[in-house]
Every structure is written in C-alpha cells, then in structure tokens.
C-alpha cells in the first residue's frame, strides 16, 4: 500500500489541514482524505503543491509499505 505521510508532516510543523488548504489552494476535502489515508488517487499537481509547501521530496510525502494493509486489518479486527 502507498502510505501518505501528510499527517506526519503537518504534525511536525504543528499545522492544521485548514491552514494547509488556505496556503496551497488545495481543496480541504482532498487534504482531509490524504491526511486520513483514505484517498485512492492523487493528482500530480496536488503532490507538487504539497512538496513545494513542505519543501520536501516526494519520498517524504509518499511511502510504499507492503505490510501496511495487513497492519490496518489486524488493528480493525482487534477493535
């Protein structure tokens, strides 16, 4: 699964999704879905704006983790 590390980046900077939306012009709902890793696709222009805002590389924003889906499924079953 591709992990979106937007929540980590925002947390490090103590910023909120609303502040990010205002600063980048990215729709709040788009950022909300990315923040909660509930998005199935991401527009390249959105990734570019996020990388510019955070002054980061794409690898700082996205990560491939083949075991991540299994971790989520285990967590959901235990709840």
Automatic annotation (TrEMBL):
SUPFAM superfamilies: lambda repressor-like DNA-binding domains. Coiled coil: none annotated. It holds the Pfam family HTH_26. Residues 6-61 form the HTH cro/C1-type domain. InterPro entries: Cro/C1-type_HTH, Lambda_DNA-bd_dom_sf. This is Helix-turn-helix transcriptional regulator. It comes from Alicyclobacillus fastidiosus.
